[in-house]
Amino acid sequence: MQTSVNTGSMPAKTYVSLGQIKSRGAKLELPEVGGGCGTQGVAGKASCGSSDGPADMPQAIWDKVKNHPCYSEEAHHHFARMHVAVAPACNIQCNYCNRKYDCSNESRPGVVSQKLTPEQAVRKVVAVASEIPQMTVLGIAGPGDALANPKKTFDTFRMLQAQAPDLKLCISTNGLALPDLVDEICSYNVDHVTITINMVNPAVGEKIYPWIFYNHRRIRGLEASQILHERQMLGLEMLTARGVLTKVNSVLIPGINDQHLIEVNREVKKRGAFLHNIMPLISEPEHGTVFGLTGQRGPSAAELKAVQDACMGGANLMRHCRQCRADAVGLLGEDRSEEFSQDKLDNMLVVYDLEKRRAYQDQVALERQAQQTAKQQAQQASAAIKIADDLKVMVAVATKGGGRVNEHFGHVTEFQVFEVSAERALFVGHRRVDHYCQGGYGDDDQLPSVVRAINDCHAVLVAKIGACPRDELSAAGVEPVDRYFGEFIEKAALDWFNDYRARIASGAVIHQSRGDALIRQGAYTSALAA
């Protein structure tokens, strides 16, 4: 049965600048939060998006983020998200986006295998939530812009509220239409909105956006960027005033906005952004984007981390993003959408068991408490070691979920990378790799590329590792460690680090700085070439 919703008369899309808002005497009451999530919580810890629990933020905020994999780094180990492709139209053009191409093996925004009607989307969401009790979040992120397709977006939300009331609803938008639809967003209890903001200087934006479609006309050049910028800032302020948690996504484009993103971070913090997610440009030529076809490169992992580090102290950072497809299903870093294709849905008996879903989440709560306890114990043990140093090292981790060291080196498709010091193990990113093991055997030709992906790390924590990759990693200056199988990641990383510090203090090993390690790894690469 086809259903629809009367969204009422949409407000006229009138261009209103922040200056006009102020000149008309309108007042936006922004919460006194010091820039959303950029404030500091208990004992100076970053207050949102960190792996810390409710003691580090107000209870009302914790309730909104505790099982949202994008808004809590800790939650992404346990909870899944789903995107439904009900929004095909877009009202701007980005030089890094091309929605025409799709491969089931690629993960990038704007890519979908099938566009859905709101009715199809709701059936799919209910089916997925019935089979995957850890799926807690439903987002609309394209393949165009959720708010350039308001009727389809809000039809989907209306039906889901009736059939799956426990799901968190999210919207991802470029922000151009956002100020006109904030009331509509809030009427559906949407607590999480992501705005892609790549600039706060229209001169920078002119290099990223060829055109926008606004007020029934296509606008190009500096004027287009100016309008987009002001609409994004106004929409962000309006969401903050209504208590909606807002994440800002920014695509790091070397030579265009890499240094400028520090200013973006500062400006979105002022307007109450909850998190800032700085993502690397995806610009392979085969995707057919303007940047890809003109040779604009993406950033290296080191360049991405440098910009993120430069933003520390501003709006709090999200570093665990996987740049998901617009039809992604599952935990971050995985995609189970093929399990729920249309033909499989047609033959699937769907029973939405709310009690089963709540029971799973209760179980996760116990697991997370154990994870917090283990981390605190490891931090206390680290603090008790009387070695005066300010040592920081990078550690790669092989995990398949649950926040534990539990993946075989040969089965890894991505490593999680942590910066470890005496105080903490800070998640700083992930590195995608191809399987080393194929059909039960190691692919020796693939091994060097896997090693190079983590060649700035001092150690890699794995469940198990074979003799050949163990030797290759050691030759590259990366210590392979398999004695922490099943341990929580942060505890394992801190325990290894404390052992490493003790070995340095005893003279058993000589610490190499990252620069020295990279020199040695360069020699390893040259030896391979020879």
Q: How would you write the strand order of the largest sheet? A: 10-9-8-5-4-3-1-11
Under CATH, the topology of the largest domain can be stated as TIM Barrel
Give the amount of beta strand, in percent. 5-15%
For the biggest sheet, the summary is: 8 strands, mixed
- CATH level-1 class of the largest domain: Alpha Beta
Structural class: alpha/beta
What Rg is obtained from the alpha carbons, in whole angstroms? 23 Å
Shape: globular
| Average pLDDT, all residues | 81
Query: Number of helix segments?
Result: 16
In the predicted model, the low-confidence regions spanning at least 5 consecutive residues are 1-52, 101-106
Write out the CATH superfamily name of the largest domain: Aldolase class I
Helix content: 25-40%
Summarize the helices and strands and which ones pair or pack.
Layout: H1 18-23, H2 59-65, E1 80-83, E2 92-93, H3 118-131, E3 135-140, H4 150-163, E4 168-173, H5 178-187, E5 192-196, H6 202-205, E6 211-214, E7 217-220, H7 221-241, E8 245-252, H8 260-270, E9 275-280, H9 290-293, H10 301-310, E10 317-318, E11 329-330, H11 342-346, H12 354-384, E12 393-397, E13 414-420, E14 425-432, E15 437-438, E16 441-442, H13 447-453, E17 459-461, H14 467-475, E18 479-481, H15 489-506, H16 514-529
Parallel strand pairs: 1-3, 3-4, 4-5, 5-8, 8-9, 9-10, 12-17, 17-18
Antiparallel strand pairs: 1-11, 2-6, 6-7, 12-13, 13-14, 15-16
Helix pairs in contact: 3-4, 5-7, 12-15
Describe this structure in words.
The chain is α/β, with parallel strands linked by helices and 530 residues long. The protein is 35% helix and 15% strand. The strands form 4 sheets. Strands 10-9-8-5-4-3-1-11 form an 8-stranded mixed β-sheet. The chain has a 5-stranded mixed β-sheet with strand order 14-13-12-17-18. Strand 13 (414-420) and strand 14 (425-432) form a beta hairpin. Helix 12 (354-384) runs parallel beside helix 15. Residues 1-52 and 101-106 have low confidence and may be disordered.
